[in-house]
Amino acid sequence: MSSRASSTRRGPDPPLKPATFLVLVSLAAGDRHGYALRKDVAERSGGSIRLGPASLYRTIGTLLADGLIEESGRRPAPELDDERRRYYRITERGRRALRAEISRLEALAAAARAVIPARVKP
Amino acid sequence: MRRTRPVAVRVACLLFDLGARILPGGVVDGFRAEIREGFLDEASDSYRQGGVWRLLRSTCAAIADLVLTTNRITPSRRGALMPALLQDLRYAFRTFRRQPGFTLGALLMLALGIGANTAIFTLLNAAFLRPLPYPAADRLVRVWGARAGAGESRGRINPNDAADWRRGAPGVEALGVSTTTAQPLTGSGDPAMIPVALVSSGFLEVLQVTPAMGRVFGPEHDRPGRDTEIVVTDGFWRRVLASDPRALGRIVRLADVACTIIGVLPPDFVSPGMGAGAEPQVWRPLVVAPDNRGGHFTLGVARLRPGATLAEAESQMNAVAERLAREFPSTNLGQRAALEPLREAIAGDTRPVVLLLMAAVGVVLLSACANVANLLLARSTARERELAVRGALGATRGRLVRQLLTESLLLGVAAASAGILVGWILLQAVPAWLAEQLPTVMAATMDGRVLSFALLLSSATVVLFGLLPAIVASRQDLRGTLAAGSPGGGGGLRRFQSTLIVVEAALALILLVSATFLVRSLVRLQRVDPGFTTAHTLTFRLSLPRTRYPDAVRGNAFFKTVMHRIAAQPGVAAVGGVNTSPLSGRNSCDSFGLDDRPAPPQGQEPCAEVRVATPGYFTAMGIRLEAGRHLSLEDTADTQPVAVISDSMAKRYWPAGTAVGQRLKWGSVASESPWLTIVGVIGGVRHFGLNELAPDEVYMPMEQRGAPAVTFAVRTEHDASALREQVRVIIADLDPALPVAELLTTNELVARSVALPAFRTQLLTAFAVLALLLAVSGVYGVVAFQVGQRRREIGIRLALGATSREVRRLVVRRGMSTVALGCGIGVVAAFPLMRLLQDALFGVTPGDPLPYVIAPAVLLATALAASYLPARRATAFDPVDTIRGD
Fold first, then answer.
1. Which one of 2.60.40.10, 1.10.10.10, 3.30.1490.10, 1.10.760.10 gives the CATH number of domain A18-115?
2. Into how many domains does chain B fold?
């Protein structure tokens, strides 16, 4: 299993892990705190990717270190808020990485489709 | 914003925190609080959505995630986990191997505790938890008959009433009725009585049985003409029909009638608790005259429509019952339907017994846990220096706790495996004939649920006996221990050990008190005079098929020959027969009218058990004659009809002792049946069990009123059971197609009737003794340990002139004071608890003081012995050695 590149490394980004990818997608849709993020990821993956509390923060830690996401200063209305919660948002760099990953996946999918066409309904 | 969270969620969070602290790895740096918060949110959601079960699952998943994630991603820790775990395990193995006595003792206690729990839980599972083996079994209900006036709430029902109830109740999808009997099977090897179920066509439909072969009954079988078509069980098909693939259409002779097999039931089919141990092997159609409303002899079972509730169905049926009461007032007045979930109806009376036993084995396991916890504590105190050195060398507290927990876990896994084995062995030890008294559908078999229970129990056990000592031990002050250089075992530890002993003693005392109550009750029960002799008497039953013995004349002639032949055997003192044997519990109460007083209003006539006996019966059975005379050979069909009644009946109606010479008549005074003149009064015979008073009985001579089935009693001069083979030979000689049933000595007859209370008492006594042994070995362990800890002090005392006697008294007093405290708590706690036993007691009230004296005496005496042994060893120390020793 390939480990994530550190933020100092240049060159083409290695493929994102599905969980990381979905965390970025989720944050691209809006700022969230940890637990909301986990629920959103589970929902977006149709339940196939469930991050445990510790794996989520491991992913967040890596993304923060890589500069793909950052802590958000924006907070919801105080009565809905819990002071211990930190909110995260995607950085510009994160969006670029996400776009790159989407293109990469599309290219891969296109290459595959050339061999195995999508099932067409009669 | 702070919200209060449910207790379950807080417990889950505590577990999670604990996991985060002591499991290898730990938590990603910098996110500790957030991970915890995230888990709390998730836990609350899971609990809200799916209750405790879902919460448990997400907690386990989160803890697993914790271990896996942190290990995978932290380079410095990668690869450290497995070796660390292996290291822990290896280390644990080594320490256990070094202390085989401790290991074996702990293992034995836990295995016994877990084993007993597994076995009793298997019974509990079979009785209350496991779904009945029918499709959508939760919609099945038992249909009882309730009679408002008679105070009867769970009686049998009339088949025609039941069919009407069903038609008027839209909430009921199907309903069937059944009754069980035994019929002789002939023409297939030795003649034998086999259990037969008579059912309406709806019965197998309610259970949704798909036959393995052929078909089951249809509506055409509820009418006369098709009642010789039968459905047989898989067991019958294999055993009697030798698994004949062309069994359909084959003929078997049942009750001397040729019956055609139309279907074979699937192998896994069992009846819904019918025949209580005599699982029906053949199913026959039940045909009832359409105008029969008075006979209440069937059990009903119904399937509710999806969505219909039990209460709805019951009120719908009772609307019909009220209409029937108006239509047929003489038979149906006050007759109502009462529904009960089928699973509860089958488990019936076993519930309090099983719960009692479950509580008892729970106590045994708790005691075992407390003992092992004490052993581990003592052991970890002895290892204080080792732990302190490891701590000083850099092991974190979490690491030390983990090491200790690994050891407990290893012990727990071994104990669980041994425990499941012990449980299985215990279940095998249940005598087969006793298991036969329970319905087959309640057969105690281990399934996935039992195994999960055993595993869950073992895990809980590990936490109970392992975690506390681990935390206590790892809390020791490192520097203090290293500096002092001698084992300490501070006041906190001693208090903890003493608390465990107090709890154990209290629990053991409660069990001892319960066991004493049950033993006393059983002894009283066994001392009850059954009303007949239990020595040297053999009984057996013959049922004559109507085809070959169509009337009483032929039947009586045959029975006379039987008695004549048996009386001619050497050693036989008396022979007689009766239609319904003592303690058989067969119900035959019939109403009667008396000559010397006005008739009671219709429907309120008194009733008495109908008995038909031969003249020799009372002598053979050893039944006392109280007044008048026995039935005699001179009472024949041509002489005046006579009767002998039981003394309870004589006292009830003629308290002045003037029963002999009075006249009674079956039915009512106005009925057609002849007047019977009472010629004698005999002692009462227990019929429904030793704990039930002898019912009112009326005996008539067999010559004046025949009986198709008779139980014979043979009184011998020596061993009655030696006659068994001769009886078989004689009957086979007289009628080769007639099976001999219920061939038992009167002793066995009585033993059988107290089998269940006896078994219950033996089991509870065994558990109480187990708890006592555990408590006492706990006391021994703790006192011995404390003596070891106080060697120096004892040595100094001896050196300063204390006598051995004083030292012994000192040690014993310490041990006994904890036990005495436990004893006191136990007595106080037992008092209200014994009220729950009330229903299981016979001849003893929960207020009986004796058990409260015996049980503490036993506990204190054994505990005294257990603390005296180490005390004697304490004074054997050489004071000089011990003081210089350290």
1. 1.10.10.10
2. 5
Are the Cβ atoms of A52 and B66 closer than 8 angstroms?
yes
Interface test with chain B among A20, A43, A56, A75, by most B beta carbons within 10 Å: A56
Last residue of a domain, one of B734, B762, B790: B734
Smallest Cα distance from B4 to chain A, Å: 13
| A-B C-beta contacts closer than 8 Å | 64
Cα separation, B813 vs B819, whole angstroms: 10
Measure the CA angle with vertex B791, ends B788 and B792; round to 5°. 145
Q: What is the mean predicted confidence (pLDDT) over B386-414?
A: 78
Smallest CA-to-CA distance from B657 within B645, B668, B666, B675 is with B645
Residues B688 and B664 in one domain: yes
Q: What is the DSSP string of B286-298?
A: ----TT--S---B
Q: Which amino acid is at A39?
A: K
Q: Return the half-sphere exposure (C-beta side, CA atoms, 13 A cut-off) of residue B530.
A: 24
Q: B628 has which bridge partners?
A: B680
**Alpha-carbon distance B34 to nearest alpha carbon in chain A (angstroms):** 7
B142 is a domain residue: no
Does residue B144 lie within any of the structural domains? no
Give the nearest chain A residue to B1 (CA atoms).
A82
Whose CA is closest to B780, among B484, B555, B514, B504? B504
The pLDDT score that the predictor gives to residue B488 is 45
Judging contacts by C-beta atoms under 8 Å, the chain B residues touching residue A79 are: 1
Q: What pLDDT digit, counting tens, does each position of B502-517 carry?
A: 998 999 999 999 999 9
Q: Cα–Cα distance between B642 and B629 in angstroms, integer?
A: 11
Beta partners for residue B258, in sequence order = B253
DSSP assignment of B638-687:
TS--EEEEEHHHHHHH-TTS--TT-EEEES-TTSSSPPEEEEEEE-----
Which residues have a Cβ under 8 Å from the Cβ of B379 and sit 6 or more positions away?
B99, B102
Q: How far apart are CA B534 and CA B745, in angstroms?
A: 8
Domain of B24?
A: 7-78
CA distance A54 to B39: 9
Contact B863, B505 (CB under 8 A): yes
Contact: A82, B61; criterion CB under 8 Å: no
pTM: 0.69
- Decide if pLDDT at A6 tops 50: no
Residues B94 and B190 in one domain: no
